[in-house]
Amino acid sequence: MEEKLSWIVSDAVDYKGSPADRSKTGGWVPAALILGIEVCERLSTMGIAVNLVTYLGGTMHLPSSTSANVVTDFMGTSFLLCLLGGFLADSFLGRYRTIAIFTLVQILGTALLAISTKLPRLRPPPCQPTLPCNQADGFQMGILYLALYLVALGTGGLKSSVSGFGTDQFDDKDKKEKAQMAYFFNRFFFFISVGTLTAVTVLVYVQDQVSRSIAYGTCSVAMLTALLVFLAGTRRYRYKKSTGSPIVQILQVVAASIKKRSLEVPYDVGYLYENGPEGSRIHHTDQFRCLDKAAVVAEGDFVQGGHNSAPNPWKLCSVTRVEEVKMMVRLLPIWATTIIFWTAYAQMITFSVEQASTMERSIGSFQIPAGSLTVFFVVAIMITLAVNDRFIMPLWKKWTGKPGFSSLQRIAIGLALSTLGMLAAAITERKRLSVAASVGRATTTLPVSVFQLIPQFFLVGSGEAFIYTGQLDFFITQSPKGMKTMSTGLFLTTLSLGFFLSSLLVSVVKKATGSAGQQGWLADHINYGRLDWFFGLLTILSLVNFVVYLVCAAWYKPQKPKPTLQMEKIGNGSAMEDKV
C-alpha cells in the first residue's frame, strides 16, 4: 500500500480527475510537448513585431512615428493581456484549457494577417513617382488591427500559462523531478531564443524576399501543428487545481482595510486574525500598517457567527494574507524603475529597423532584410549568458565568495547597458544624418554600412540578458508562494508598460517638436528628422531612471519578523478567533 502511495503526486490529478500516477503522467516528455507551443508563439509574435514597421511604412504608407506606435502598442497589448490570461487560468479555465483556447485565437489572428497582406483590396495602391502616396484607409487598417490584436490576445493567454503548465509536470517534492524542473527552465529559455532567432532570420527573409502572406500563413500552420501536438499529450499531463486568483485576494485585503480605516490596530499584534496552518504562516511586519486593519476582527466579519464560522474574505483577512499583499507592495518600486528599459528596447524593433532600411545592407549579392538586424539581440543574449557563465561568475565567486550576481545587481547591469545602448544609438544616428545631409535626404540607400548599428543592438541585447533573468528571478523569489503567477504577470507588465510608454513618448515628442511647416524630431521619413535627439532624450531618461533604481534597490530589504512574544501568540492558534 505504501509503495502504491509513493507513485501518487499529492497535489495533482490526471485528465480524469483522479490522483496523478507518477509513472504515467508528467515528466520531461509532456513538458516537451508544451514547449512546442512556446516556440511557435515566439516565431509568430516576434516574426510579426520585428518587421512590421517596414510593412506599415513601405506598403501601408504610414508616417514613421505612426508606424512605430502601431508596433509598440501591439507589443504592449500582448504583454498586458497576460494579466487577463493569468486571471482566467487561475479563476475559471485552468492552464490546459487556457493554452488550448488562446492558441486557437492566435491561429485565427495569424491566418487573418496572412489574408490581409495577400488581398490587394486590403492595402493601398503602390506609390507612383509623380503622385503622392495614399495612406491605408480606415477599413484596411481596421482589418490589420483586428488581425494584430487577435495575435496579441493569443500571446497574452499563452504566455500566462505555458511556463506554469510546464512546471506542473514536475513534482518539486521529489528530488529527481525537481532536478528535471531546473532543466526544463533552461530549455524553456533556450526554446524562446530558438523561436526568436528563427523569426528574425528565416521568417523576416521570407516576408521581404518571398511573400508576407506566405510567412504569416506558415506561422498559422506552425501554431496549428503545435496545438495538435499539445492536445496529443492530454492523457499524459498532470493538472493542478486552481487556488483562486491572486488579484482577487489582493483586492479583498485592500477592500477590508478600507472598510476598517477608522479602526485602530491593536498594539499586541497577537490579537490580529490568523487561521492558517502554522507551517504556512507569514508573521507580522511593521511596514504598511494601514493594511493591518484588514486583519482586525470586528462585528459582522463572520458569515454565520459562532466558533467554527468562516470569515467573510471581503471583510476579514488573515495576517498571512495581509503580509502577502505587503510583499507584493514592496516589489512595486523595483517594478516601476524597470519599465524604462523596455521603452529603450522598443526603439530597437521600430526606429532602429527604420534606420537599417535606409543604410547599405548588401553582402556581395545578398541584401540583409532590415528586420533581421534584430538577430544581434539574440546573439548578444547568447554571448552574454555564455561569457557570464564561463568567465564572469567564476571570477565573481573567487573575489567575493558569492555564487553569482543577485537579482537586483543583474537588473542594475541591464539598466546601465541599455543607457549606453541609447547613447550609442544617438551617436550612430548623428553620423547617419550627416551623411544624409551631404548626399541628399531623399537618397533611398545611404552610403553608410548597416553594421554601424551593431553597438546599440548588442548593448541593449546584453542588457536584456541581465535584466530579463534578474527581473524573473526577483519577482518569483521575492513574492509569496501563493502569488507566483501574479508576480510573473507583474514582471510581464513592465514589458507592456515599457512599450506603451514608448508610444506616449513618441506622440509627445512629435507634437512638442513639430510646428507649422516643420516635422520636428520625428519626421514622416527619418532622414528629415532629428532621431538622434530623440535617442539622446531616452539616454537622459534612462540615466535618471538608473539613479532612482539604485535608491529603490538600496531601500528594498525582504522584511523579517521580529522575535517577540506577540509572534508566539499568533503561532499558538487563532487567538482572536477563540474570542469570537
UniProtKB/TrEMBL annotation:
It is found in: Membrane. InterPro entries: MFS_trans_sf, POT_fam, PTR2_symporter_CS. It comes from the Eukaryota. Its main location: membrane. Pfam families: PTR2. The chain crosses the membrane at residues 70-89, 96-115, 143-167, 188-207, 213-232, 331-348, 368-387, 408-428, 448-468, 489-509, 533-556. Keywords: Membrane, Transmembrane, Transmembrane helix. It is a multi-pass membrane protein. SUPFAM superfamilies: MFS general substrate transporter (SSF103473). One of its GO terms (cellular component) is membrane. Belongs to the major facilitator superfamily. Proton-dependent oligopeptide transporter (POT/PTR) (TC 2.A.17) family. This is Uncharacterized protein.
